[in-house]
């Protein structure tokens, strides 16, 4: 059998099982057992964690106007230039599948005037994003992000709190081998003059840069630092760094941020070459990477984006946020998969069909109490039911057929100790509730 392994690391597909034209879209994955349990664990932990930091969830549509992203994310970014799924709807409106979550959240914030209700807004989101990238391990065309956005404060403490919150989330998920990189990309005061200096020094390297970076040197020279091309990566070592060209306000902000991170007990490394793939950042930028992910090692990243609201036509709203990829988190938790498997307290085995009514009522009653219980009505042999029960990892197996009914007893087998006992049918439900709840 030939398997085409794509998508999440353990997902196998045999395309011969299905007509070519209806198979799933390249780079877009189905998520199911056992991976789905890891996803659920991540989702539960992320929600609980963000909610304890007073963030509330916001759900925005998957489709937005293309203009939102060209203005919000930036016309010169890879995302807008090469990666968006853009189409016209039946009315001729130009729409895009969202490639990221921040621009839509800011759009919603402005559209619903949320800051009039409370000048501080803390919002988190969770959902699918779409980018037309080359699919590979850790990089897909439909992927999922969780993220937070804090609106209403310019203070460096807020950025530090967001970074610390993310680091603590990863600690809660028991992730090891992570590193936080921290930088500043300056502001409207200091970035333009730095860009001129950078463009100047890029001129002498022009011939050695990849064609993308050759274009970038004019439009957005900072992007060169983000180039994945190996030869460009080597060249950037010689370039002047924005950290040496920050204005007083940005310099002070960066120093205060680092002090606050110290208070939160967060370890980080200042990286003077850190720029992020989106244009809206100013001052603080950060990225969290894992040494266990291979080439696509970014677990998440974020920064401050005080100007995005104005770019979208709103009043100035200072803001800082973070976005992380769920697929990459799931990959890091894959070796602990069994931890996240739901437990099965009871499996009911029926040697014949004489106890089926009693068994069906029993299972249904337990399930309504939230106790997971399995049963197989298909009349398989006792041996094959026991085999399935064994494979299910159930704590107990209840055996109930004609023989047991005539004795007014059911047999309960502890699958760990293999001990069996008889339980009177009269008290069966209460007995099981007590044991299994
Ligand atoms: P990368 O450097 O890996 O391309 P990025 O800078 O484009 O990441 P962001 O836009 O900041 O990433 O998105 C935040 C996180 O979302 C990333 O750190 C990563 O974990 C995840 N992510 C981004 N693009 C993809 C993708 N195509 N497939 C899977 N996860 C992704
Ligand atoms: Mg990217």
SSE blueprint:
Blueprint: E1 4-5, E2 12-13, H1 35-52, E3 56-57, E4 63-65, H2 66-72, H3 78-83, E5 86-88, E6 94-97, H4 102-111, H5 114-117, E7 121-130, E8 142-151, H6 156-172, E9 178-184, H7 191-203, H8 211-219, H9 230-235, H10 248-263, E10 269-270, E11 282-290, E12 298-304, H11 308-311, E13 319-325, H12 326-333, E14 346-349, H13 356-368, E15 373-375, H14 382-392, E16 396-399, H15 402-406, E17 409-414, E18 420-424, H16 428-436
Helix pairs in contact: 1-12, 6-10
The chain binds adenosine-5'-triphosphate and magnesium ion (MG).
Describe the structure.
Strands 3-7-8-13-12-11-9-10 form an eight-stranded mixed sheet. It is α+β, with helices and mostly antiparallel strands. It is 36% helix and 21% strand. The longest helix is centred in the first third of the chain and has 18 residues, at 35-52. It folds into two domains: 20-190 and 246-337, BirA Bifunctional Protein, domain 2 (2-Layer Sandwich), CATH 3.30.930.10; 343-436, Rossmann fold, CATH 3.40.50.800. It contains 16 helices and 18 strands. α1 (35-52) crosses α12 (326-333) and α6 (156-172) runs parallel beside α10 (248-263). The protein is elongated and about 90 Å long. It has helices at 35-52, 66-72, 78-83, 102-111, 114-117, 156-172, 191-203, 211-219, 230-235, 248-263, 308-311, 326-333, 356-368, 382-392, 402-406, 428-436, and strands at residues 4-5, 12-13, 56-57, 63-65, 86-88, 94-97, 121-130, 142-151, 178-184, 269-270, 282-290, 298-304, 319-325, 346-349, 373-375, 396-399, 409-414, 420-424. The structure holds adenosine-5'-triphosphate (ATP) and magnesium ion (MG). Adenosine-5'-triphosphate binds at residues 100, 131, 133, 138-140, 143, 145, 276-277, 296, 298-301, 323-325, 327-328.
């Amino acid at each position: 059998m030939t398997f085409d392994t794509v998508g999440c690391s353990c997902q196998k597909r045999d395309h011969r099982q299905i007509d070519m034209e209806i198979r799933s879209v390249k780079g877009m994955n189905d998520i199911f057992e056992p991976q789905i349990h890891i996803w659920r664990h991540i989702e539960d932990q992320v929600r609980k964690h963000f909610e304890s930091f007073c963030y509330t969830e916001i759900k925005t549509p998957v489709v937005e106007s293309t203009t939102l992203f060209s203005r919000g994310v930036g016309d010169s970014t890879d995302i807008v230039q090469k990666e968006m799924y853009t189409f016209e709807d039946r009315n001729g409106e130009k729409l895009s599948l969202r490639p990221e979550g921040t621009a839509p959240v800011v759009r919603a914030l402005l559209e619903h005037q949320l800051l009039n209700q409370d000048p501080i807004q803390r919002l988190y989101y969770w959902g699918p994003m779409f980018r037309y990238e080359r699919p590979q391990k850790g990089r897909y065309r439909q992927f999922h992000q969780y993220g937070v956005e804090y609106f209403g404060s310019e203070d460096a403490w807020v950025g530090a709190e967001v970074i610390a919150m993310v680091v603590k989330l990863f600690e809660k998920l028991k992730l090891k081998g992570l590193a936080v990189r921290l930088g500043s990309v300056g502001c409207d005061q200091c970035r333009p003059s730095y860009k001129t200096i950078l463009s100047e020094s890029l001129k002498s390297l022009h011939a050695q840069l990849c064609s993308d970076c050759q274009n970038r040197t004019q439009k957005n020279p900072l992007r060169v630092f983000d180039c994945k091309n190996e030869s460009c990566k080597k060249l950037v070592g010689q370039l002047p760094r924005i950290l040496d060209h920050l204005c007083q306000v940005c310099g002070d902000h960066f120093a205060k941020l680092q002090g606050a991170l110290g208070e939160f007990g967060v370890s980080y490394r200042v990286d003077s070459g850190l720029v992020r793939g989106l244009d809206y950042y100013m001052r603080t930028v950060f990225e969290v990477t894992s040494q266990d992910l291979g080439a696509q090692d970014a677990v998440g990243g974020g920064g401050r984006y005080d100007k995005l609201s104005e770019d979208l036509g709103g009043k100035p709203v200072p803001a800082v946020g973070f976005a992380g990829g769920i697929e990459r988190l799931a990959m890091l938790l894959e070796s602990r998969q069994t931890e996240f498997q739901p437990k099965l307290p009871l499996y009911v085995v029926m040697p014949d069909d004489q106890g089926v009514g009693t068994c069906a009522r029993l299972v249904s009653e337990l399930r309504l109490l939230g106790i997971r219980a399995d049963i197989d009505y298909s009349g398989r042999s006792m041996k094959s039911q026991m085999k399935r029960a064994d494979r299910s990892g159930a704590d107990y197996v209840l055996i109930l057929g004609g023989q047991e009914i005539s004795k007014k007893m059911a047999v309960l087998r502890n699958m760990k100790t293999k001990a069996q006992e008889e339980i009177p049918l009269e008290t069966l439900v209460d007995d099981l509730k007590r044991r299994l709840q």
